[in-house]
Amino acid sequence: MVVGAYRDFFAATAAAAGALTGLLFVALSVTGRRGLVAGPAVFQQVRAAAALLAFTNALAVSLFALVPNTNAGYPALVMGVVGILFSAAGLRSILSSGSPLRERWRQYVLITFLLAIFGTELVAGIIVAASSDASAALQVIGYALVTSVLVGIARAWEIVGDRDTGVVASLAVLTGHPSPYSPPAATPQSGGGEPEPDAAPAAAPPD
Questions:
Q1: Which of 18, 139, 156, 41 lies closest to 99, judged by CA?
Q2: Is the pLDDT of residue 90 over 70?
Q3: Cα separation values, 7 from 77, 131, 142, 197, Å
Q4: Closest among 121, 103, 107 to 155, alpha carbons compared
């Protein structure tokens, strides 16, 4: 059972994660499945599920930690295992998509972040479960939950936002280059279109 400052921290984290989860559902219901992730639909699905899992992780661990006589290490341990399994499943889906490496590497970055968060949470959860007095490990769980919320916010904005706000995409825009992750522009269909404006007018028939 957490007391003192940690209890206030977990209460604040649970409130924030719960509110963000509700906003994510509302945003997805309003915008549908429109997203900015280039590549196959599986990329969109993985990132949407990652946002939901990140918020659920912070919410579940914080709420269970607030239950009287509950060791905070056990929910952290369970969610760590769930997160690692999700990361492995997401990696398998990305590898089987058959997309070029240029489109896949951003998904690899997301999977790396998830593995780091849930791996750290799993190890710290084991330590806290073995000894409830391990304040350093409990602090690490807190850091993992905060990072999880931040990752969830970034992924949610990518899904429902109006533009890609990633570092690489932002640098490309600032330097006057198109974003390397923007979907390819639609090409005009051949035939049936209006004549090109630069086309020379047909010569008049001789009298």
A1: 41
A2: yes
A3: 18, 18, 11, 69
A4: 107
Give CA separation, 70 vs 14, 120, 132, in Å.
16, 20, 10
With 0-12 / 13-18 / 19 or more C-beta atoms within 10 angstroms meaning exposed / middle / buried, residue 134 is middle
Helix axes 41-66, 135-160, angle to 10 degrees: 140
Domain ranges in the chain? 5-174
Q: How many residues does the chain have?
A: 207
Tokens (6 digits) for 167: 């570092």
Cα–Cα dist 144/150, whole Å: 10
Q: What is the CA radius of gyration of the chain?
A: 24
Cα–Cα distance for residue pair 84/62, rounded to 1 Å: 19
- pLDDT of 146 > 90? The answer is yes
- Residue 164: what pLDDT? 55
Give the integer Cα–Cα distance in Å for 138 and 6: 9
Q: What is the pLDDT of residues 16-35, one digit of tens each?
A: 988 888 887 776 676 655 44
As given in the structure block, the two tokens for residue 31 are 């915008």
What string of DSSP letters covers 83-102? HHHHHHHHHHHHHTT---HH
